[in-house]
Automatic annotation (TrEMBL):
GO terms of biological process kind: microtubule-based movement
GO molecular function, one term: dynein light intermediate chain binding
InterPro entries registered for this protein in UniProt: DHC (IPR026983), Dynein_heavy_tail (IPR013594)
Gene Ontology CC terms: axonemal dynein complex
Protein name (database record): DYH5 protein
Organism from which the protein derives: Callaeas wilsoni
Amino acid sequence: TEITEKLEEVVMIWTKQIRQVLAESEQIRREADDVGPSAELEHWKSRMSSFNSLLDEIKSSRVKKIISILQAARSKTLKQWKELDGSITIAANEAKDNVRYLYTLDKFFGPLASASPVTVMEHVPSLMNTVCMIYCTSPYYNTSEHMTSLFLKVTNQMINTCKTYLCQG
């Protein structure tokens, strides 16, 4: 019982830490007003890395041993643990999926940032088709919140490209 109590304390600490990571990941991002679409990809890559590291830790043999001991002891802390494990898995899957879909836009980010306004306009139809494909097929990224954020960043990049072009002339 003493060992079980100590292990439950460890799991409760982990639970608190994981809840904090999940809460931080759900907070509204503060970004500069002129940030471009590559920042969206970087955000999701960073989030994917964080959650994959967390998943690796949760699936480590050390954690599995502690959880199996608590299962044998029929610990009440495992209900919360299983819920968090599921939440982390969902968050990791979302980040991975969003990175995969946003990489399809990556080929547009270079021309969008460095081309002339005329060349940028040539890329817009293909860019919009790709965004439409993401919206129609992505299980996670097809929310108005994500799409608005992406369109805002694409627009910011187009404005910055035009500003740069005008200042060169």
